[in-house]
Amino acid sequence: MQRAKAAVVGLGNSRVFRRADVPLGALAVEACRAAITDAGLSISDIDGITTAPVQPFDGAGDIDGINYVTTGFAIEALGIDPTWSEQGDVMVTQTFLQAANAVAAGACKYALVFRALHNPTGRYGRIDATEAPGAAQFTVPYGLGAVTGIALVEQKYIATYGAKREDLGKFIVRNRQNAMNWEYGYWAQHRPELLTLDDYMTSRMISEPMCIHDCDIPIQGAAAFVLTSAERARDLPHKPAYILGTAVAPTFWRRKSGGPIPPLDQYMAIGRDMAAKLYANAGISREDIDVVNFYDGFSVVTPFWAECFGLCPEGEAFAWVADPDIPLNTSSGNLGAGRMHGCPHLMDGAMQVMGRSGVRQVENARVSVVAIAPNNIGGGVVFSSEPN
Amino acid sequence: MTAIDTTTQTIGKPVPVPDEMTAPFWEAARQHRLVIQQCSDCETFHHPPVGICSQCLSIDLQFVDVSGRGYVYSYSIVRDQRLPAFDDLMPYIVAEVRLHDAPGVRLLSNLPGTAIDDVHCGMEVEVDFEEIAPDVVIPQFRKAAF
């Protein structure tokens, strides 16, 4: 029986900028048109569309097409007439899965997934609020921000296992080299600068043990994907990236965590659970994997996924990413592309099995594993060069 | 337990806005008591507070006094962040505290009185209270005396 029901058949990127030099709505349209053209389709073929409009920081603003881009804006701006449209939560993975399910179920023939990330002028995410309502009641009065949330998890990992920041640094130094091969990214396009381990170890601390190089740089840009059913995919120009399996972390963790990020023990349990479900859903095991792209909006998320997928023994995740035995983050991730929120991982994850990765190409890449976001809001996809 | 004199340090910190579920927690804090919501039927602790117990579906939830003793599960030293009110306090500690007598509950604290070089995972702490604005009190923790 053919396992894959859906496939990626087109990919597109907008230009990227450090700040909002070009309106976000225009960049979203740019990425969507590029993906549709790449798929060998025209606007009138697209009958499904979804996005995650939420920006991952406070104070982004609330003007559609400027500060974020909704599905509704894109429908109008692109001039498409969908039979299926949807809008998702903050991560691209969940909307990507919505689209895969929509084409597999026949809700539409060709689904467009896009993600547009905003970086306004001024200091990113500055919070001038004097009040802390909702979930912030228990975090903001203590000065907890997003970086500190994940720093608490990393510190516990270091304290528990004796993991070394130097090992994480080796991964980050190599990743910046990979970034020069990600032509759609901020660092390759605007600042082709390499890093040394000394740069990493002496760089400015943000929230110990996390330094500036552990955080992705906020940018303005958009990316898009065209998905269709496995049957239709065969008739299009590119060799398809078949979606062999998917999994997401249960949404109840978002409610339970009592803060932006759950503590280490829960965090890793969630990730191991999701990885096991992804392996089972795709019908693969560790030995089948040819390449992995693990989220790195904060650097430490990558080694944590590696451990959760069983690529290294417990406690040895930093050492593994320093010297991985499977090609790791060929996309260069968010750290290499800028804050594109998992789009580079999904994109090169797909391109690898399509044989389209160029200088990044892993030889004979057949099975490609992608995991996006911190574990508690995680989602994963297994791409395959074959539908079975 | 004594109130911490932080009058020179706390101007402008965002104040928690109590809601229907959290009001008893903040009212107790104002009285320098630490209370955690607990299901009266299955005894599961919930923090932040909830409207219905996800374990047994009871809506008989009450706030119970806890000892306020716990330990530092993890911590971070903050040297850059986005809240203007905390700019002059950097570097400061954000610790994740787990309570000994309320399993599963974690609370944050800045560990007032603890130097940034002295904090470590496993450090025993006890609750204290900080008035961050007139009549607005948040639980904090300090290194345990015992």
> What is the overall shape of chain B?
globular
Structural class of chain A: alpha/beta
Intertermini distance of chain B: 13 Å
**Overall pLDDT confidence of chain B:** 92
Largest two-chain interface:
A-B, 45 and 40 residues
Strand percent estimate of chain B: 35-45%
Strand and helix order of chain B:
EHEEEEEEEE
Name a few traits of the molecule.
heterodimer; A: 388 residues; alpha/beta; nine-stranded mixed beta sheet; two-stranded antiparallel sheet; globular; B: 146 residues; mainly beta; five-stranded antiparallel beta sheet; three-stranded antiparallel beta sheet; 1 helix; 9 strands; disordered N terminus
Description:
The complex is a heterodimer of chains A (388) and B (146). Chain A has 388 residues and is an alpha/beta fold. Chain A has 14 helices and twelve strands. Chain A has helices at residues 24-38, 71-78, 92-105, 146-161, 165-179, 186-190, 197-201, 230-233, 252-256, 264-282, 301-308, 317-322, 333-337, 343-354, and strands at 6-13, 48-51, 84-87, 110-117, 131-132, 205-207, 210-211, 221-229, 241-248, 291-294, 367-372, 379-384. A nine-stranded mixed beta sheet of chain A has the order 3-2-4-8-1-9-12-11-10, sandwiched between helices. Chain A has a two-stranded antiparallel sheet with strand order 6-7. In chain A, helix 1 packs across helix 2 and helix 10 (264-282) packs across helix 11. The N and C termini of chain A lie close together (8 Å). The model of chain A has no long low-confidence stretch (mean pLDDT 94). By secondary structure, chain B is mainly β. Chain B has one helix and nine strands. In chain B, the strands form two sheets. Chain B has a five-stranded antiparallel beta sheet, covered by helices on one side. Chain B has a three-stranded antiparallel beta sheet with strand order 3-2-4, with helices on one face. In chain B, a hairpin with a 5-residue loop joins strand 2 (35-39) and strand 3. The longest helix of chain B is centred in the first third of the chain and has 8 residues, at 23-30. The radius of gyration of chain B is 16 Å and the shape is globular. Mean pLDDT of chain B is 92; it is low at 1-10. The chains are: A alpha/beta (388), B mainly beta (146). The interface between A and B is large, with 45 and 40 residues. Strand 5 of chain A pairs parallel with strand 1 (15-16) of chain B.
